[in-house]
Write a structure and sequence with these properties.
This protein has 922 residues and is mainly alpha-helical. The chain contains 47 helices and seven strands. Strands 2-3-4-1-5 form a five-stranded parallel sheet, sandwiched between helices. It has a two-stranded antiparallel ribbon with strand order 6-7. α23 runs antiparallel to α24, α32 runs antiparallel to α33 and α38 packs parallel to α39. The chain is flat. The N terminus is likely disordered.
Length: 922
């Protein structure tokens, strides 16, 4: 993946994932600026971003910042080293009577004072110096890396903190590495003592979550990172910002040389037994228990226990349940890479022997046998582990194991009799699992390999492989997908049981393009399914027919058919079919403006995908449904959260492009044109000309045209519309065509325009908006406003109200214009729709109409927080809230913490009671 990195900036301009900690520091400083005092102790592992947090906090703070750091010299280094650095520019502010007292920290002042009281005079002198500075403006003293501080510096820190009340307007910030604290008894005693000082606050700095890592990578790379790359860097860095930067700079293979010294610094100080134990643990590649470590090291119980205690106390290993893991996985990688080849092989062989009788560790056994060069043993273990993974619905792991089996097949003689399966059958299994696991690119290569091996006289076998490759290619946005579908149908003989399945698959692809031929093919599929009594194929055909019929405009007649199809799929225990019915229903509900039902159905689809192990293979479709409906309903914060969560599924290119377009739409509407442009460019790279994003290309064109208009480039917008209107599916994709026509009219496009069907209230609202954009008449805009008001889509209402205000001003009706502007401004304020808000403000200014838009949510709660509060009141925990709303558990936890703070309560029970008492929730 290193090639995906391009030219990366080492340090991300994006300060990601520290909003809560930054707000905490800012809040404490606010009290200091008003005459209070505060000490903050920031603890975290090496590389977690303590210095970056301090730098971001102190930048432009409006305070006197004194920055000092300790160096890795300890007691042998310069006494008071951090204070010498922090106070070096303060010599001119020292009174004459204090010069000798302060000379130990300001050598330029001359020879220091000696005698029994000299130390006390120094401490009092530093305190007085800080007090003098604080009379002019707040002063912030920063002591970084206190784990390396000499004993004298620690004593001075403690003195200053305990006597800080004598220096109002002062703040002391101390940073330290948590992994070094165990070994530093003086520092540990200091921190324990400071905890008893009332104005001291501990601020632990943890690792970043995945979304913060993505934000950091976005800043480093200057573009939206590939989800698989982000996933791999997050996995290996475990959210440590320094490690993220190093991996982004050097690639995801191996341990960056820039980190090796940092990672191994603690390991190198270990005694022989703990060092050997750590080397053994590095070969485990994951959690390892005492018993296994004992077998592999050969240590007795007491010797093992003593070595483990040292390794844990040194913060090299940490306890994870009943096992041990490295404090950071990269430490284990660095240790492993330092082993000699012979050592690795020997230790892997010992692990393999230790795991031989452990049926729950088949995957680990396969790994260790492979690394120990026992290829036949690795082959059989990986094969057995693959089927165990299938039983656990762990399709990603099953696919990885089958890939290992395929690699070993080439080096192990007589693999077929050893496993009881031939190579082609193994390939066919891997292709099917690739579809379930969402491994589309690798699955497509395996399907092509299988087609090169199969005897083409076996028509049905060839047809099924062609159909599977077609689905894989469609997900990748490859135009060859449709031809594979057609070839599969041509290859299967009439009357064969597989034919209804193949016809259904072709019909579904034609429907997605969309192509009018879909109706003819699905009718043939339905007839074939009924002739062969194939209930699954019949339900598949009924879903496609329901969607095609609904697109003609009568959704209510099709919803019962989709509900029945969903129930039949559930009864037949075919989760992929059930998911397809849910996806079809949610997409149609959104297309017809029934947003609450669309959101609920999309969430149901995500839940089913998660429960059946198909989240990676199918979840992204339901995520797109959810995000689109949330955007239309005006829940933009939630939509953005859900989009970020969906990217964690590492969707295939076509769906990734669609998600990026949705994010780009939000960025554009919120006025971030540069971010929108970057997302558009990336989506265009990914979109292709076929597959699942075919209709989405019209959405991308809309976004490009809208972006051009926002940049006041109407001619560019007109060209985008002109090109998009040449698409062969422009008349059959009326759901996507109408918004494009509106943008064309807004941009002044005068070329020939199609006349798409108006199917349902949403398309009617778009058609009315199109007429209003063309005619600019007040009556047309009033009709458009009414249509969007009925649908309850706030952005579209606001846009139509803007058009109505312009038309009213043109007709000389200032009162009507003011009413429309006020209504639109209120909606844009709630949405955070800065792009439209700026246009509204400009129109109001030119018309000299005062418009006040600021709206304060009740009790300070955002719409998102109000929704989460309702779930809290219903008794849901953070994980349940996360699953319900398709966000991470950490995000849910942050929202709940914010809610508790705004309501002024201590726990969830009190929050629920307060919310009901105040009428926030029923």
């Amino acid at each position: 993946m290193a090639g995906d990195l391009g030219t990366a900036r080492l340090i991300s301009p994006e300060f990601a994932g520290r909003r809560e900690e930054s707000a905490r520091l800012t809040g404490l400083f606010r009290a200091v600026a008003e005459g209070g005092v505060a000490t903050v102790v920031i603890g975290g592992e090496a590389g977690v971003g303590k210095s970056r947090l301090v730098a971001e906090f102190t930048r432009g703070l409006g305070a006197r910042v004194l920055l000092g750091g300790c160096v890795e010299l300890g007691a042998e280094g310069l006494p008071f080293a951090p204070f010498v650095t922090a106070l070096r520019d303060c010599a001119g502010e020292v009174p004459d009577e204090s010069r000798r007292s302060l000379a130990p920290v300001l050598p330029v002042l001359g020879p220091p004072e000696t005698g029994e009281d000299a130390r006390w005079g120094l401490f009092e002198g530093v305190l007085a110096l800080l007090g003098g500075m604080a009379t002019a403006r707040p002063v912030v003293l920063v002591v970084e890396d206190a784990h390396w501080a000499d004993a004298s510096s620690l004593d001075l820190i403690e003195f200053l903190v305990r006597n800080q009340s004598a220096v109002p307007g002062s703040m002391i910030v101390v940073t330290h590495r948590t992994e070094e604290t165990r070994r530093g008894q003086p520092l540990r005693r200091l921190l324990t003592g400071l905890d008893r000082v009332p104005w001291t606050t501990r601020l632990p700095l943890g690792r970043l979550g995945r979304r913060a890592v993505v934000s950091q990578l976005r800043g480093i790379l200057g573009r939206e990172p590939d989800p698989l790359l982000a996933q791999e860097i997050h996995r290996r860095s475990e959210g440590n910002p320094l490690f993220v930067e190093a991996l982004a700079e050097t690639g995801t293979d191996g341990v960056p040389s820039s980190l090796e010294d940092l990672l191994l610094s603690t390991v190198d100080r270990l005694a022989p037994d703990p060092a050997q134990l750590v080397r053994v643990a590095a070969v485990a590649s994951g959690p390892v228990r005492d018993a296994t470590l004992g077998l592999v090291t050969g240590f007795g119980a007491d010797r093992l226990s003593a070595a483990l205690r040292v390794a844990v106390d040194a913060s090299v290993l940490t306890v994870a349940g009943d096992a041990y893991v490295f404090r950071h996985a990269l430490i284990g990688e660095a240790v492993y890479h330092g082993l000699l080849p012979g050592e690795r092989v020997d230790l892997h062989a010992r692990y393999a022997k230790a795991l031989e009788d452990n049926e729950s560790a088949l995957a680990g056994l396969a790994h260790h046998r492979y690394e120990a060069r026992d290829f036949p043993g690795a082959l059989t273990a990986a094969f057995e582990a693959a089927w165990a993974a299938r039983d656990a619905l762990a399709y990603t792991e099953q696919f990885q194991l089958l890939e290992r089996v395929l690699r070993l097949w080439e080096v192990v003689p007589d693999s077929a009799p050893l496993l009881g399966i031939d190579h082609l059958t193994l390939l066919e299994h891997a292709v099917e699992v690739a579809l379930r696991a969402g491994e589309y690119a690798r699955g497509e290569r395996l399907a092509t390999a299988a087609l090169s091996e199969v005897d083409h006289a076996e028509g049905v076998r060839v047809a099924i492989l062609l159909e599977q490759r077609a689905r894989l290619r469609a997900q990748l946005g490859l135009p060859e997908a449709l031809e594979d579908h057609r070839a599969a149908v041509r290859t299967a003989p009439d009357g064969h049981p597989a034919r209804p399945y193949l016809l259904n698959s072709l019909a579904a692809r034609l429907m997605d393009i969309p192509d009018p031929e879909a109706r003819e093919v699905v009718r043939e599929a339905l007839a074939a399914a009924r002739r062969s009594y194939d209930e699954v194929a019949e339900v598949q055909a009924l879903i496609t027919l329901a969607v095609l019929d609904a697109r003609l405009g009568d959704l209510d007649a099709q919803l019962p058919r989709l509900a029945r199809a969903r129930a039949l799929a559930e009864g037949m225990n075919t989760p992929r079919l059930r998911l397809r019915a849910l996806h079809a229903e949610s997409s149609l509900l959104q297309a017809f403006g029934r947003l609450d039902a669309a959101i609920s159905t999309a969430r149901a689809g995500l839940a089913v995908a998660r429960e059946t192990g198909l989240a990676r293979g199918c979840g992204h479709e339901h995520a797109i449904d959810l995000v689109g409906a949330l955007i239309s309903s005006g829940d933009w914060d939630e939509a953005l959260e859900s989009a970020e969560h969906a990217l964690e599924l590492a969707p295939p290119p076509a769906h990734l492009a669609h998600l990026l377009c949705l994010k780009g739409f939000l960025a554009l509407q919120r006025g971030d044109l540069d971010a929108a442009s970057a997302l558009v460019d990336r989506a265009r790279e990914l979109g292709g000309e076929g597959g699942a994003f075919t209709q989405g290309l019209l959405f991308l064109a809309r976004l490009e045209a809208d972006l051009a208009l926002a940049r006041d480039r109407p001619e560019e917008a007109r060209e985008v519309v002109r090109q998009a209107l040449t698409a062969p599916f422009i008349l059959t994709s009326h759901r996507f065509t109408w918004p494009l026509l509106v943008l064309g009219a807004r941009a002044g496009f005068t070329g020939p325009m199609p006349e798409p069907r108006v199917a349902g209230p949403v398309q009617r609202a778009w058609s009315l908006t199109f007429e209003a954009e063309r005619s600019r008449s007040r009556a047309a805009w009033a009709e458009a406003v009414d249509a969007w008001e009925e649908l309850g889509q706030p952005l579209r209402i606001a846009q139509a109200q803007y058009g109505l205000a312009e038309a009213a001003l043109g007709a000389g009706d200032r009162e009507a214009a003011e009413t429309a502007l006020r209504r639109a401004a209120g909606l844009t304020e709630r949405l955070g729709a800065r792009l439209l808000g700026d246009r509204l403000a400009d129109l109001a200014r030119r018309a000299r109409i005062p418009v006040t838009t600021k709206q304060v949510p009740r009790f300070g709660l955002t719409p998102r927080e109000s929704e989460i509060l309702r779930l809290v009141a219903d008794g849901l925990g953070n994980r349940e809230i996360a699953e319900r709303l398709f966000i991470s558990a950490k995000t849910a936890s942050v929202h709940v913490s914010n809610i508790l703070g705004k309501l002024g309560v201590r726990n969830r029970v009190a929050a629920a009671a307060t919310a009901r008492r105040l009428g926030i929730v029923p």
